[in-house]
Amino acid sequence: MQRLSLDQPIPDALRGAVLALGNFDGFHLGHQAVVGRAVQRGAHERKAVIVATFDPHPVRHFRPDTPPFRLTSLDQRQRLFAGAGADAMLVFDFNAALAATTAEDFVADLLARRIGASGVVTGEDFTFGKGRGGNAQVLRELGAAHGIGAETVGPVTLDGEPVSSSRIRAALSVGDPGTATRLLTRPFAVQGVVVHGDKRGRALGWPTANVELGPYQRPAYGIYAVRVRLEDGSEHDGVASVGVRPMFEPPKELLEAVVFDWDGDLYGRVIEVALHHYIRPEKKFDGLEALKAQMDRDAAEARALLRA
What we know:
Elements: E1 2-5, E2 18-21, H1 29-45, E3 49-55, H2 58-62, H3 74-83, E4 88-93, H4 96-99, H5 103-115, E5 119-123, H6 136-145, E6 149-153, E7 157-158, E8 161-162, H7 165-173, H8 177-184, E9 189-195, H9 200-203, E10 209-211, E11 222-229, E12 235-243, E13 254-259, E14 270-280, H10 288-307
Parallel strand pairs: 1-4, 2-3, 2-5, 3-4, 5-6
Antiparallel strand pairs: 7-8, 9-10, 9-14, 10-13, 11-12, 11-14, 12-13
Helix pairs in contact: 5-6, 7-8
């Protein structure tokens, strides 16, 4: 799948594409419905499909002090969009210039002239343009004037409530990865480069692959049963700690994953750690022997949960 930006011209083969337009952070059931409709239109009209997303998230631009909240990285979104049947991902660089672009110019200059979109699919609540001057109705009207057929997809509900990124974040923050999984249709996963730690896990008999949480939404601190995806695409069961390691000073926020039944050097490599089950909150123990005994129990419980 191609990753595009407006720094370079859109390839000729992708001009005239149907565009799925939104933030799509998390790519949950609602986002999947929007992209699915764009893919359906592309197949019917024999046109390419581009999924357009924004990075950084507009919230980060307007409120830079907002705590981390992202549910997916760009690399994860690209893989998910490809799996949904799209041909390319277009990343809008959400900067001051884009924030100042009027709704009219967004459609006329960006969608029509620079991208050459023939159709656009959004969610019903999509807004765009300076001061959120554009909405679904404005997009339909402006799009029609430039030969772009715009349509919306209604919200998807689960358990009587609309699926949303905020519901997923709320579930993760209280240690409920199961609900997040149902809304996302897959477990929430942190992807990052394995960094060097202080090697305490190795000394305790449980060597860990440490990943910084970066811009991701913070799940409830604690111990999780996880599956770890390596660069070769293989997946491995494991157990992970997310938090500030209350046994050690100074506190340092990390995701520390133990990959079961695997031995190798992961330093500097990209891994993805998917949170399947919450086991317990993090805790300070009376010494390293007590910590090691609890780690053994956590690993056994993680194996049992993942087998089930």
